[in-house]
Amino acid sequence: MGASHPPTISRSSALYEFLDGVRDQVPLLFGVAPFGIIFGALAIDAGIPPLETQGFSLFVFAGSAQLIAAGMIANAVPPLTIVLTILVVNLRHMLYSANLAPHIQRLPSRWRIILSWLLTDEAFAVASLRYRRGNTAQAHWYTLGTGLTLWGIWQVSTGIGILLGAHIPGSWSLDFALPLTFMALIAPTLTNRSDWAAALSAGFMAVALAGLPYKMGLLLASIVGITAGVVVEISTPNKKAMSE
Amino acid sequence: METDVLWGIIAGGMLVTYATRLSFIALVPYERMPEFFRRCLRYVPPSVIAALILPELLRTTGQFDLSLGNHRLWAGALAALIAWRTRNSWLTIAIGMITLWLLSSI
């Protein structure tokens, strides 16, 4: 990545990038929508009124943090504790922020404000791989397309959850579409040994640490994976082949 | 809880969430990040995405499960093979979901 990307080619117009971002986020709909529906239903069940339930999705826009917060509200946990928990659950977003910083920092402030706000797990997964493909002059449109699509899915699915309540067909296992989509996303990017080392060690560490509260397992496993990737990169003699 | 308190939680939750997402983008210019740190950042996407996938396959019931009865593991393994060989996301999702439904219906 970096200075070597070729000058503008036809596919890099803003509209194409935006539509590509939308298209690449659509498969995640099947995985994300069930969680939005579950959040809506759970929040209503926790005694949160419909307007405030939708308010969580509109403004906080963070799936696992919202689910945990709804549970805490049901148990009348003090508000400050809930907000601090949301912070801890979302600490992993700092990794995403650091990863996308080189690309987003160069943009005007209105872009930095909106793209940062859309930086969820799923949007990061899709957008970060776009930046790895290079030719990034218009890639912020891609990131906007993918982020707005996810935001829209989250709003609609929360609304459905509010209306439906607890009537979710669990036997459809639609949430399984989420890991499947992530597999399809990650497969083309595992091009060398250091990428594989990062992915495998992070994956198995996440399995080992899945019992930890507040999504800490995901954060710690990611750090282990990053370390493994760097270690393998450094200890591989053919560094030329690794770096681009 | 009263709605005023709920809106307070929403506002606080929005603020802290946004702070984590904006953190490095707003505060640390890329040129100022140490070289070693930049090298680390390259491995964030494969690490995070793999860490999102594997627990969904191997800890489907809350604990480590390698048994034949863990349908998500075997449907996921087949889907991973499809993803690796074809790089087609719709085919990966379709095969994975259909395999899971078939295994569950046996």
Describe what this molecule looks like in 3D.
The complex is a heterodimer of chains A (244) and B (106). With 244 residues, chain A is mostly helical. Chain A folds into 2 domains: 12-174, no CATH class; 190-235. Chain A has 13 helices and no strands. Chain A has helices spanning 14-25, 29-45, 50-60, 63-74, 79-89, 93-104, 109-117, 121-132, 139-164, 177-186, 193-208, 216-235, 239-243. In chain A, helix 1 (14-25) packs parallel to helix 9 and helix 6 runs parallel beside helix 8. Chain A is globular and about 60 Å long. The N and C termini of chain A lie close together (6 Å). By secondary structure, chain B is mainly alpha-helical. In chain B, 75% of the residues lie in helices and 0% in strands. Chain B has helices spanning 3-27, 35-41, 44-58, 71-86, 89-105. The longest helix of chain B is centred in the N-terminal third of the chain and has 25 residues, at 3-27. Chain B is extended. The model of chain B has no long low-confidence stretch (mean pLDDT 90). Classes of the chains: A mainly alpha (244), B mainly alpha (106). At the A-B interface, helix 3, helix 4, helix 5, helix 6 and helix 7 of A face helix 1, helix 2, helix 3, helix 4 and helix 5 of B.
Q: What is the string of SSEs of chain A from the N terminus onward? A: HHHHHHHHHHHHH
Total DSSP helices of chain B = 5
Most extensive interface: pair and counts?
Answer: A-B, 96 and 71 residues
Overall structural class of chain B, as computed from helix and strand content, comes to mainly alpha
Mean pLDDT of chain A: 86
From the N-terminal CA to the C-terminal CA of chain B, the straight-line distance is 46 Å
Radius of gyration of chain B: 21 Å
Mean pLDDT of chain B: 90
How large is the radius of gyration of chain A? Answer: 19 Å
Query: In angstroms, what separates the terminal alpha carbons of chain A?
Result: 6 Å
Compute the number of strand runs of chain A: 0
Order of helices and strands of chain B: HHHHH
Largest sheet of chain A: none
Shape of chain B: extended
Low-confidence stretches of chain B: none
Domain count of chain A, please report it.
Answer: 2
Q: Give the amount of beta strand of chain B, in percent.
A: under 5%
